[in-house]
Sequence to fold (237 residues):
Amino acid sequence: MAQTSILGRVGQLLRANINSLLDGAEDPEKMLDQLIRDFTNNMSDAEEAVAQTIGNLRMVEDDAKEARETAEDWGAKAVAASKKADELRAEGNTGDADKFDTLAKLALGRQISFENQLKTFETQIEQQSALVEQLKAGLNKMRTRRDELVQKRDELVARAKMAQAQTQVQKTIKDVSVMDPTSELSHYEEKVRRQEAMARGMAEVNANSLDEQFAALDDAEDEVEVEARLAALKAKK
Fold:
């Protein structure tokens, strides 16, 4: 039946391994979205087929109702014709009584015919009702699986984005390691150390120059003292 073939295709889609489908996909998110669209389209076909089956069931139920009512109507006509025949026969009108008995027999024959149709319809109703229940249960499972598929899609997309972000971070860290900016800092630090050393050297040079000047000044003062004392000695003599 068309309904079972549609459900079969959907079942194959459900059994497909999503991860294996994504292995060769350039864009996993688009692949998952397409998978959901395909599943939804198949589910729509299945829903249409189930609706058609339910519609056929309702038509058979209508036919059965009509057959039941018609059979009852012919039964009532048979009762009425038989009653009329009995009344005519009681009145001594055998000829007309026989005619009404004949009509009663025809009505009973029609009643039996429609009762047979009713039995056939009831068998069909029982079979199609069981099929409809089965298809409804299948549709409910499909809706549940579709929700699971959407949830799985969201989970996989989130995991993919997280993995992509982690990969980018690791790549950035690797690029920083290759560049090794600390080597540039070390070079600059060495330059600063040289400048500091130069400054200390200049300070020492300047300090030595001042010491020499003060030392020369002290020597001059000593020489003056010596001359003064010499003059004093000569004066005493």
Q: What stands out?
A: The two ends are 156 Å apart (CA to CA).
